[in-house]
Write a structure and sequence with these properties.
The protein is of the alpha+beta class. It folds into 2 domains: 149 residues, 2-Layer Sandwich (Fructose-1,6-Bisphosphatase, Chain A, domain 1), CATH 3.30.540; 120 residues, D-Maltodextrin-Binding Protein, domain 2, CATH 3.40.190.80. 31% of the residues lie in helices and 24% in strands. It contains 9 helices and 15 strands. Strands 4-3-5-6-7-8-9-10 form an 8-stranded mixed sheet, sandwiched between helices. A 5-stranded mixed sheet has the order 12-11-13-15-14, with helices on both faces. β6 and β7 form a beta hairpin. α7 runs parallel beside α8. The longest helix has 17 residues. It starts with 7 loop residues before the first helix and ends in an 11-residue tail after the last helix. The mean pLDDT is 93. One of its GO terms (molecular function) is metal ion binding.
Length: 282
């Protein structure tokens, strides 16, 4: 992750404040579409992997966001979940998840959102996550802090892991690989007050930034899942890294996001866990 001092050259070339407003606006473009179509989806399709769904709503929201971003920032690349990459000349890229939590949304489970992240040389610098069912907009710009609507965010500060509430998820490849987070989930459930599985990575990260949960880890994610939430957690005073060790890399699909007070303890505990054998649950 960048520090503000590392992007002085970029800050001299573009107006980050304007891009921040564009990110927040684009994250909210789909709010009414998501609300109107909630429990009224016309079409649900599989992308090929078990559990990996796309609806008519995902596509409609993504198209509207892309139209807006191409109008406002025609020289910035786009990496969108449903339509893929549109490469421009800039070192900046918008990462778009029009409906994070599609499976939740398609079942009428109210845990979903729209995630817009702006990355510079593959590192997040601006993020906006709209959670329309809660009327909440989480956002951050490097060096300016994190916010939910107009309230500034700060991660929690639990004294130890046993007092914490964590959240995680299971990648779509969990049906093919033993390294699927099942064992970590069970293990940390016994080391904490509980582990939740929300089903929307961007919203999980927003909740870490808000202190609603104390930490989040997951693997097998995409840039559009992580870009916005990573900078929102960092600007709220949280730790963003790989696990059980290493620096955060947007391309790796792995993330640990937590309060600084929990970082070492979570990493140490995750390092102790070996995956379950498939015959245990198949």
């Amino acid at each position: 992750m960048f520090e503000l001092s590392e992007i002085e050259e970029l800050a001299n070339q573009v107006n980050l404040s304007i891009l921040y407003e564009i990110a927040k606006n684009s994250a909210q473009i789909g709010n009414e579409i998501l609300k109107v179509n909630y429990n009224k989806i016309q079409k649900i399709s599989s992308k090929g992997r078990k559990g990996d769904l796309v609806t008519n709503v995902d596509l409609e929201v993504e198209n509207k966001i892309k139209e807006y971003l191409l109008e406002k920032t025609p020289n910035i690349s786009i990496n969108a979940e449903e339509s893929g990459k549109l490469t421009k000349s800039s070192d900046l890229t918008w990462c778009i998840d029009p409906l994070d939590g599609t499976t939740n949304y398609s079942h009428g489970y109210p845990f979903f959102g729209t995630s817009i992240g702006l990355v510079y040389k593959n590192k997040p610098i601006i993020g906006a996550i709209s959670v329309p069912y809660l009327n909440e907009l989480y956002s951050a710009c490097i060096g300016l802090g994190s916010f939910c609507n107009d309230s500034e965010l700060k991660v929690s500060n639990p004294s130890n892991l046993s007092d914490s509430l964590l959240v995680t998820g299971f990648s779509y490849d969990r049906f093919e690989t033993e390294d699927n987070n099942y064992a970590e989930f069970c293990y940390l459930t016994h080391k904490t007050r509980g582990v939740r599985r929300g089903g929307a990575a961007a919203v999980d990260l927003a909740f870490v930034a808000a202190g609603k949960v104390d930490g989040y880890w997951e693997r097998g994610l995409e840039a559009w899942d992580l870009a916005a939430g990573a900078i929102i957690v960092k600007e709220a005073g949280g730790i963003i890294s790989d696990y059980p060790s290493g620096e955060f890399n947007l391309s790796s699909g792995r993330i640990l996001a937590c309060s600084p007070s929990l970082e070492n303890e979570i990493k140490n505990e995750l390092d102790k866990v070996s995956p379950f054998k498939k015959n245990l649950y198949t």
